[in-house]
Amino acid sequence: MRAKVHVFLKPGVLDVQGKAVENALHGLGWSGVEGVRVGKTIEFDLKASDAAAAEAEVKQMCEKLLANTVIESYRVELA
Amino acid sequence: MRAKVHVFLKPGVLDVQGKAVENALHGLGWSGVEGVRVGKTIEFDLKASDAAAAEAEVKQMCEKLLANTVIESYRVELA
């Protein structure tokens, strides 16, 4: 089973990396770009009996390691 | 128009960040995890007349700034 985890900074948290990208895009002439947010995507293969068990396991991985839940939110996708 | 750009290392390129995450997950007891790849997701709002023009513009941004096309591949999503 292939798992995909999307990790993003929570809406209220200042995204300095996103701001830097936004400024760089403006500098290159794309002035219509706004609200840039940069996140991480972590993909991996997982041995699991069923989708529900896999999702529970991946969520535990997020809470323990993949996301800093104080400032980041995450979304799990299984395929 | 909201654009989402997914940037990943190309398949042959060693993903050291992914390897580090994999080792950390193994260390925490998730030994069934394999083939971890870590990528970036860049989301932003874009002023564009139509979807085709927007996609062409975002692809140009990827080529110029958002992805290092020597070692990274990208995928554009528009919504």
UniProtKB/TrEMBL annotation, chains A, B:
Major subcellular location class: cytoplasm
Localization (cell): Cytoplasm
EC assignment: 6.3.5.3
Superkingdom as given in the UniProt entry: Bacteria
Enzyme category, top tier: ligase
InterPro entries: PurS, PurS-like_sf
Reactions accelerated catalytically: N(2)-formyl-N(1)-(5-phospho-beta-D-ribosyl)glycinamide + L-glutamine + ATP + H2O = 2-formamido-N(1)-(5-O-phospho-beta-D-ribosyl)acetamidine + L-glutamate + ADP + phosphate + H(+)
GO MF terms held by the record: phosphoribosylformylglycinamidine synthase activity
Record function comment: Part of the phosphoribosylformylglycinamidine synthase complex involved in the purines biosynthetic pathway. Catalyzes the ATP-dependent conversion of formylglycinamide ribonucleotide (FGAR) and glutamine to yield formylglycinamidine ribonucleotide (FGAM) and glutamate. The FGAM synthase complex is composed of three subunits. PurQ produces an ammonia molecule by converting glutamine to glutamate. PurL transfers the ammonia molecule to FGAR to form FGAM in an ATP-dependent manner.
Subunit description: Part of the FGAM synthase complex composed of 1 PurL, 1 PurQ and 2 PurS subunits.
Record-stated family: Belongs to the PurS family.
PANTHER family hit by this protein: PHOSPHORIBOSYLFORMYLGLYCINAMIDINE SYNTHASE SUBUNIT PURS (PTHR34696)
Name by which UniProt lists this protein: Phosphoribosylformylglycinamidine synthase subunit PurS
Species of origin: Phenylobacterium conjunctum
Gene name as annotated: purS
